[in-house]
Amino acid sequence: MNKIYLLTVLCLSLLFSSTVIAAESEQAHEQEEEKFNVNELIMHHIKDAHDWHILDYTNKSGEKVSVSIPLPVILIHNGQLDVFLSSEFEHGHKTVTKGNNTYILYHNKIYLADEKGEIKYEDKDGEHVVVNEKPLNFSITKNVFSMMIVAVLLLLVFISVAKSYKRNPGRPKGLQAFMEPLILFVKDEIVYPNLGKKTDKFLPFLLTIFFFILFNNLLGIIPIFPGNANVTGNIAVTLTLATFTFFAINLNGNKHYWKHTLWMPGVPVFVKPILAIVELMGMIVKPVALTIRLFANITAGHIIILSLVSLIFIYESLVMSPVSVLFVLFMNCLEILVAFLQAYIFTMLSSLFIGMAVEDHH
Description:
This protein is of the alpha+beta class. It folds into two domains: 72-139, no CATH class; 143-358, no CATH class. 60% of the residues lie in helices and 14% in strands. It contains nine helices and ten strands. β5 and β6 (101-106) form a beta hairpin. The radius of gyration is 25 Å and the shape is globular. The model is unreliable at 1-33 (pLDDT under 50).
């Protein structure tokens, strides 16, 4: 059975690797007259976008055609609400005028165009900095759409499992049998050792955190739609998750937690203000550590895989293909492990911090 599982993982990883390499070869072909830019390629893949890129190809007429799924753009400026699809930008080659506002897409960011319909720059420290005004942007970007897909998947999975328990409360079967060990692992090995009798109160929150991160991590490994979004490699997403943990810690902290934070007993009075400042700094450091740990590990995985694929085009030799494929295959297997590991670490640290805040005084 273990051999079958291992073979399945290897086959899936090989499929993912070959798809990535095929996609990058198309981009390399488009840039055949230019020097291959690894940094631009990597940043293009790990950044958020206003459309979901599928592939590029050259038609019979020699024209480059980009296939992508347009996503809703929702902007507010000067009290005016503008809603349209990102396809109107034509991949940044065209401005979009709605009423009194003219918008321009530049490096996947939306600005208000100047009177000439262009981007303005200023030289600051030897770099060109865009000075155009930005509208309030509430668009459904690639990362947002991916999170919506994960939310739907989570609902489908857990509603299905809940119904299975009602129909079959005894021996689990199918999806129920697959999810039960994961749920029990989170409850018995992560949450209960840190929260004890208060496990049931915080278990729904911590289970949601664990599976939300896990599903986004696994979906991000898949290089084709609906995967390939770097959701947990976006610092805004990880900061939001860490903020939820921050509020869960401090809104549920008991009097002993706040007493040890603001006026620690058993130490000289003149030292207490200093310790209070240190403890308050520690309250901020905890969510910051959660934010950076998840963001950095997931982003690093994407960068390494894309860098290994790029070796083929840097050396401009097919000799590098087998080496690159083997390394990418290994990294994809490692990324599956990292997907579970980072969900585990974030949930474990969150439960540990909450447990420290709600711990009964002894």
